[in-house]
Amino acid sequence: MPHNQNLKILRVSRNVTVREVELESRRIAEAKGDKRFYISNARLTQLENNPFSEPSLWKLFSLSAIYQVRILELMRIYKVDADESVKWDAIAMPGRTCLLPDVPAVYRMNDLFRQHIKFPSKTTLLPRIDLPEDYQPSDAKLNPDSQFGYGYIGLEDFTMHPLIRPGSFVWIDTHHTKLRAIAWRTEYERPIYFVELRDGYSCGWCELQGNQLLLIPHHCSDVSIRRFTYPKEAEIVGRVTKFSTACVK
User: Fold this and answer.
1) Of 30, 41, 64, 209, which is least surrounded by CB within 10 A?
2) In order of start, what are the domains of the chain with their CATH numbers?
């Protein structure tokens, strides 16, 4: 429902007329010595009928007093939740390290996924799950055409350790099922792929040499490079775009 209609419904529920709002707001403005707190009959009518018309902070204050409702509740009518402001610190100031007041969705999602893991020791592709909007990857919000899957790195899979540790969850863009030759300078820029094998799944850097797909582990891992006939023995599920990995076990 448009916020202007909600504002009118609130006034009617309080049994307050437009004329009374004008008179009582004039008292508030006179008491404060500031005419910005005054709400004329025409101005309130505009606020209640024009969805693009919004009150100033001073007029919102007067309405909160007249309707006997907290100003924070009136702000929510206009889709502004003051209690959420601290949650947006990381977006408003992305260059600043900060302590978050709430658990980010990415970590809450880990708990949501764990109920779908039958064999914790094995790397697996997780089933499709209808996720709440705030759990969706930022890539999906920026590009609605992207398709994402989710994977779990088994406790016995040390292919990308210590970059992606066993027990991690990964986000997979399933549009990227072919290896792409791109320039990279560090291990963080090198594309990581989620691969389906004959006996399961794995995750790592990949190279294609003829019909041989090389699954390349992290250089600090004890796992050796593995070769598979492509695509008979190994298929690329997609490119890993994000992962959550614990730094302490």
Assistant:
1) 209
2) 3-84 (1.10.260.40), 105-244 (2.10.109.10)
